[in-house]
Amino acid sequence: MPLPLATRAPAKINLTLHVLGRRADGYHDLESLVAFAGTGDDLRLEPGRTLALDVRGPTAPLAGSDSDNLVLKAARLLAERVEGLKVGTFHLVKRLPVAAGIGGGSSDAAAALRLLARLNGLSLTHPALREAARLTGADVPVCLEPRARMMRGAGEEIGPPLGLPRLFAVLVNPRVPVETPAVFRALGLRPGEALPGARHPAVAGLSANALVGVLQEGRNDLEAPARALQPLIGEALGLLRDTPGCRLARMSGSGATAFGLYGDAATAAEAGRRLSKLRPGWWVRATSLR
Ligand SMILES: C[C@@](CO)(OP(=O)(O)O)[C@H](O)COP(=O)(O)OP(=O)(O)OC[C@H]1O[C@@H](n2ccc(N)nc2=O)[C@H](O)[C@@H]1O
Ligand SMILES: Nc1ncnc2c1ncn2[C@@H]1O[C@H](COP(=O)(O)OP(=O)(O)O)[C@@H](O)[C@H]1O
């Protein structure tokens, strides 16, 4: 039986994000431990003669015009590289907050490439697919096969899957968009300038407890510039830190989404309920990461 042409586009969480410096081309070299959440958007592909997209779901109105959607950008880039690529209409259910540091658009684009690969019998390691991912956006390659990995370079160097233990988390977004380029700009590095810092410690094979210990020693270098641009990020981090059992609270990506880590699912769920009550207008999800 053929595989169904539907897939989840999970939220991407940067458990750590170390900026090593700014390259001559303006992009920043990163070292980031990336994991994926149990919550996300959903994408389906209905095979057809032409490429099209229909977007629904609670955050659809925030995702910009359909023609600029990263789903179509990724699909077009692949079609330019694979002669006779079979395409169709994508149906996206958009649930993740937009411009939120959790790579919603990147994960949607990667999901589109997975579905096109399935429809066309291409491997996910096919060079055209890899290239289309990289050209769609810095975060797309790590989302192609969404399993926890180290991401390096500007996002194009992807390590092997790490098989991390499941982490129990709450994701909090104050529903304010934060633009990624503005946050990188606010770091204030000149092209060619490096930031000193230790190499990222190895995390493969650690227990959940030991992993959280290592994460506590890490950081997100974009947190300070993002907080300066959007003070609600500091508020979200403070509220997470005050929930019982919170072992670590940190921002993901360029923000504004913050995550808290907890020892088990029940403690995370309770923290999620508490935060939803405190900030009913915010996007709050208890989930697991791996
Ligand atoms: C910061 C991260 C961390 O995972 O996540 P998000 O906050 O987007 O989720 C990513 O590096 C974002 O990836 P993505 O959002 O795909 O970035 P792109 O669209 O390729 O680039 C947007 C802009 O961000 C800056 N940029 C991006 C990646 C990078 N390594 N260095 C950069 O300087 C550049 O100014 C670029 O023009
Ligand atoms: N499928 C999509 N989902 C969300 N945003 C999209 C999508 N396609 C294009 N965009 C555009 O990409 C920008 C970044 O969105 P997103 O991927 O959600 O950011 P982040 O990586 O910071 O979470 C948005 O401003 C939006 O206009």
Question: Describe it for me?
Answer:
The protein is of the alpha+beta class and 290 residues long. The chain folds into 2 domains: 153 residues, Ribosomal Protein S5, domain 2, CATH 3.30.230; 123 residues, GHMP kinase, C-terminal domain (Alpha-Beta Plaits). The chain has 9 helices and 10 strands. Strands 1, 2, 3, 4, 5 and 6 form a 6-stranded mixed sheet that branches. The chain has a 4-stranded antiparallel sheet with strand order 8-9-7-10, with helices on both faces. Strand 1 and strand 2 form a beta hairpin. Helix 1 runs antiparallel to helix 3 and helix 5 packs across helix 7. The longest helix has 17 residues. The protein is globular. The model has no long low-confidence stretch (mean pLDDT 96). Its EC number is 2.7.1.148. Pathway: Isoprenoid biosynthesis; isopentenyl diphosphate biosynthesis via DXP pathway; isopentenyl diphosphate from 1-deoxy-D-xylulose 5-phosphate: step 3/6. GO terms for molecular function: 4-(cytidine 5'-diphospho)-2-C-methyl-D-erythritol kinase activity; ATP binding. Keywords: ATP-binding, Isoprene biosynthesis, Kinase, Nucleotide-binding, Transferase. Catalyzes the phosphorylation of the position 2 hydroxy group of 4-diphosphocytidyl-2C-methyl-D-erythritol.
